[in-house]
Design goal:
By secondary structure, this protein is mainly alpha-helical. The protein has one domain. 66% of the residues lie in helices and 0% in strands. The longest helix is centred in the middle third of the chain and has 34 residues. The chain is globular, with a radius of gyration of 18 Å.
């Protein structure tokens, strides 16, 4: 990437591929940034040493893959909330198509070695179930989407549970703020009527 690429406006999202790319990148960013920032904060002056230890790096690798489906669920729900007003009577069909896109994103990745086949398949099924439940309630504000996921996410931090401080509210607030920023970005970049038409066409 060239220096001036930093200042270029990100491309609009108007099709299935663009939406999938947004969901993938932002789900990964959401969970990985929190894992690394929390770990650095807990390690304090020893952060550089901790980040170079293989045992810790292995724990981070496991944590980020375990957390990735949670990130997909949160960003998927955020996306559905933006698109729902444009789907009208086709809301259920649109959700089914969006779930298919999110699961296709999940399936881009081979089974992570630290997770294993069985747990990875279970994570996929749980992701599908969580997204299906979105149809049972009105769209949430972006800051409220994290609430059902925050404790599970916090439990995945690669720091021994006996060493974790009472920082759950801080991590929860991180998720809320980041999801609000993602909502603002997606709202500006997405051509919602065009993407709604794509979803109405159903899963590929």
């Amino acid at each position: 990437m060239g220096f001036f690429d930093v200042f270029r406006r990100k491309p609009p999202i108007c099709d299935r591929d663009g939406l999938a790319q947004f969901i993938d990148e932002h789900a990964a960013f959401l969970v990985q940034k929190g894992i690394y920032e929390y770990s650095r904060a807990r390690a304090a002056h020893y952060a550089k040493v901790l980040m170079s230890e293989q045992g810790f790096l292995d724990a981070v690798e496991r944590s980020r893959w375990e957390a990735y489906p949670l990130g997909l669920a949160m960003v998927g729900e955020l996306t559905e909330g933006i698109l729902r007003p444009h789907l009208g009577e086709d809301r259920r069909a649109g959700l089914d198509a969006l779930i298919a896109i999110v699961l296709d994103v999940f399936d881009r990745y081979p089974v992570p070695a630290p997770i294993g086949e069985t747990a990875w398949r279970e994570a996929r099924a749980e992701l599908s179930r969580r997204l299906d439940l979105v149809s049972l309630h009105p769209p949430k504000l972006a800051k409220d989407i994290a609430a059902p996921y925050a404790e599970s996410y916090f439990s995945l931090m690669p720091i021994h549970e006996k060493l974790r401080a009472t920082e759950f509210p801080t991590l929860h607030n991180y998720l809320k703020a980041t999801l609000c920023n993602m909502h603002d970005e997606l709202s500006k970049r997405i051509d919602a009527p065009a993407v709604a038409d794509v979803l109405r066409a159903g899963p590929l």
